[in-house]
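Working notes for the structural subgroup meeting. M.R. asked for a predicted model of this chain before we commit to crystallization trials. I am recording the input and output together here so anyone reviewing the notebook later can reproduce the run.

Input as submitted:
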Amino acid sequence: MSNIFPVVVNQRFFPVRLNELVDKDSYMVQEFVKNRNHMDIARDILMMVRYPLDWKGQPDDEHKYSAYSGIFHYNKTIKWDYWDEGKEVLSTLVADCEGSSICFVSCMRAKDVSEKDVYEVFGYVTKENGEFLGGHGYAFFRLDVTEQWRLYESTLDIPPLEYPVVPDIFKPFSYHGIVYVPEQVFNDKEYYEVTTMTKMGNLELEKRTNYFMSRNDKKRRVMKHLLIGKAFNRHSRLEKAIGRSMLGRVRFGRMIRKINGRVR
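Returned structure, recorded in token form:
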């Protein structure tokens, strides 16, 4: 464990320490949790937050910042992956995987869940055959030290029948064909970096970095979310968003039908 947090430079408008993303003391987070219990928080983030699409019906996480005017005008664009704080997600109700899971961790911490009992995870997911699906953000939680660790997959459109039990939060975890591989495990107080190579059955998983959204991986991002949704026997929020976009249905409809078993 370390109390020295990496500095986020490329995913925010201004440099911040990683733990600053978990903003449990912000007004929006404190108001959101006020009349909700822990399971209400988990459910409502899943059902209220939407997945960002661009005007072409593709996954999109571009953010723009504009300040002042005239000769002091300042503008910055985060084009491929913006890491939201909890209050930003609750303000817009739009976020991708890491934004909505950070929001969940922020809310659980605001609800007085100990820093020992809830963590944001940055890592990646693969199929069990080792095929890389993409970088991913998710969360681990337990209500107290007597409980088992559970995986909170924040990109589903409705809550799963149960949150999967995780034996070891610092090792790869397989769930219905999807392998979750942690790399950075953190909250507002603690930070762990998972750097060792781990074996899982016959599959050798190596540490990967910087696999969050990049310019050319939008198709892979759609597939990742579709397969995760299928593993949980639920739709993903991304699939739901695509279903509401005519261009999205044209662009990714065949992939959705194929993964759901409706196209040979």
